[in-house]
Every structure is written in C-alpha cells, then in structure tokens.
Write a structure and sequence with these properties.
By secondary structure, the chain is of the alpha/beta class. The chain has a single domain, classed as Inosine-uridine Nucleoside N-ribohydrolase, Chain A. It contains 13 helices and eleven strands. The strands form two sheets. A nine-stranded mixed beta sheet has the order 3-2-1-4-5-6-11-9-10, with helices on both faces. Strands 7-8 form a two-stranded antiparallel sheet. Strand 1, helix 1 and strand 2 form a beta-alpha-beta unit. The two termini are 23 Å apart. The model has no long low-confidence stretch (mean pLDDT 96). The site of beta-D-ribofuranose has 16 residues, from helix 1, helix 6 and helix 12.
C-alpha cells in the first residue's frame, strides 16, 4: 500500500475522506496540504486539524497552501457544507500547529522523496498542485499516481450545468494538472452521484457506530443533507471525497474506468467543464472512473468509522 499525501479544502466530505485514509490498516498518511475551496483557507486548515484531533492523529503534519485560485476570485461552498464547512458543528480549537513550510514547496519535496511510490490524493481545487507543477513540471511522475476528486466527464455538473465544484473553482489550475505527465485517476461528480450516495438511514447509522468518529461524520453532514433535501429535493446526499479515497485505497471499487485525455473548459460558458478527448495530443490519458461499487465503498467507510476512536 503506497503512502499518501492528501490535498484538501476540508469541508464535510473531505473530513470523512480523511478519516478513512487515517483509519485504513495498510495506509500511512504522510502529510495533509490545505487549499482554499469549500471554505476559506484558514477554515479549511482548521477543519483538517479538527479531523486529525477526532482521529487522535495529531502526529500527521499539516502544510498550509494557497488561499485563492490562480486567476478567479475564491468562491466557497458554505451553503452546502455549513458556514464552518463542517455542518456548523461548533468544534473547539483543535490546538495543532501548522508546519512552517508552505504546502507548495512541501508538495515538491514530498514528490521528490516519493521515488514513484507514494500516492497524491486531491480533494479540493487543484491550485496547490498547479503551483507545485510550476516549480517541478514532472511533479506527477514522481508519485505512483494522483487520484483526483473532481470533474464531471458526463457533463452533468454541480455548480453549472457542465462543471463540478473543484474544477470550476480553479479551472486554470485544473487545466495544468490534466496536461501534466504522470498517472492520474479522476473520480468525478458522476460516480459520486451513483456509488457515493448516502440515505438518511445510512447517515443515522454513522452516529450509531458508537465512536467519536462516527458521531463526527454524522454531525458534519447535517447541512449537506438539509441542502440536498431543501434545494435539490432529493433524500440523499453524496460523499465525493470519501469515494475518491475509497478508490485510492482499493482499486477494485472502481469497476469501470476509461483511459482518455481530459480538456478543461476555461471560457465563460464552459468554465470548469471536463471534456473527455481522444483528439487532443497535448492531453495525456487520465483514468476516468465511470462506475464504482457503492456497497464496497460503504463497507470501507463504516469499517473506518468503527476502527477509529
Ligand atoms: C467537491 O467539491 C466539494 O464541495 C466537495 O468537498 C468535493 O471535493 C464536490 O464537487
Ligand atoms: Ca473537497
């Protein structure tokens, strides 16, 4: 099992994703890097640390990254995740210091130290990774692979008709990441809306696991559940970042993938759209996940919530 570096804009589903990576018996989380996205950078960093506190893993180093996208002003998703990004759970100050090193040089260093063995997992806008690519254009080749939660390869987005949040927030960054050399897996909004759906009963079951982590997973998803119910009229919400981590930890959860280039839209109309392309010679292949095993995902998630404090 490779060691993991996880880049996160820690909102509610990021937090559960981090718990899953921290809980996995064969995985080692080497570092968290934070980026602005779901919430502003300070809150994302605080939320990453709150998650480490719940998991009793305050030994994992946290590197603070970019506070805004490369070109566009930052747009957050607090209406989806809560003002604090964690369901307005009112968590106490986690009391963990950040590392002095900025996330961007940290990513460059961790990549160099990886010897092609570590995995990079990205759960937020790709700003930190794009900035690191500006320093080391071969950054992604130094990881075993990069698993990206982001994109809507079926053109059904969650911010615009076509675009998914992580890519839409910083499309210029995403465009650089999808043309960089190296192995990539894309776990998009499409598959999170099939294999990553959580019902009210399943959310209740999180609290019934009987651990602080299970209660935390339940509590931080209160706003996203209400948002999906009230704004979208659906009784489910999805957990895109946990599904991405589940696939990173267990390849077999991705049941159908397609290796194809991805072009990122940057015009006003197409901002953040992720177009599968076999005609663009500048877009090296990304493994797009089209189908995933929702039961196996849920099993891994509940195992994690049970295994943690
Ligand atoms: C993605 O955007 C964020 O709201 C979630 O944390 C996830 O990373 C889904 O579009
Ligand atoms: Ca996220």
């Amino acid at each position: 099992m490779p060691k993991l570096i996880i880049d996160t804009d820690t909102g509610s589903d990021d937090a559960i994703a981090l718990l899953m990576a921290l809980a996995h018996p064969d995985a080692e989380v080497l570092a968290l890097t934070t980026v602005a996205g779901n919430v502003p950078l300070d809150q994302a960093t605080r939320n990453a640390k709150s998650t480490l506190r719940v998991a009793e893993r305050t030994d994992v180093p946290v590197y603070v990254g970019c506070d805004r996208p490369l070109v566009h002003p930052l747009e957050t998703a607090t209406e989806v995740h809560g003002e604090d990004g964690l369901g307005n759970a009112n968590l106490p100050d986690p009391g963990i210091n950040s590392q002095d090193e900025h996330a961007v040089p940290a990513l460059v260093r961790l990549a160099a130290e990886s010897n092609g063995e570590h995995d990079l997992i990205t759960l937020g806008p790709l700003t930190n990774v794009a900035a690191a690519l500006a320093i080391d254009p071969d950054l992604l080749t130094r990881f075993r692979r990069t698993v990206i939660m982001g994109g809507a390869p079926d053109m059904v987005g969650n911010v615009t008709d076509m675009a998914e949040f992580n890519i839409w927030v910083d499309p210029e960054a995403a465009a650089r990441v999808f043309v960089a050399p190296g192995a990539r897996v894309m776990v998009g909004w499409n598959v999170s809306m099939t294999a990553g759906l959580i019902s009210p009963e399943q959310r209740q079951a999180m609290a019934q696991v009987g651990t602080a982590s299970g209660q935390f997973a339940h509590d931080v998803t209160s706003v996203v559940e209400a948002f999906c119910h009230q704004e979208l009229g659906i009784p489910f919400f999805s957990l895109p970042d946990p599904l991405a981590v589940a696939i990173a930890l267990d390849d077999t959860i991705a049941t159908r993938t397609q290796a194809i280039g991805v072009t990122v839209g940057r015009s006003d109309e197409a901002r953040g759209a992720t177009f599968p392309t076999h005609l663009n010679p500048d877009a090296p292949a990304t493994d797009i996940v089209w189908e995933a095993d929702g039961d196996a995902f849920q099993t891994q998630m509940f195992d994690a919530l049970r295994a943690l404090p």
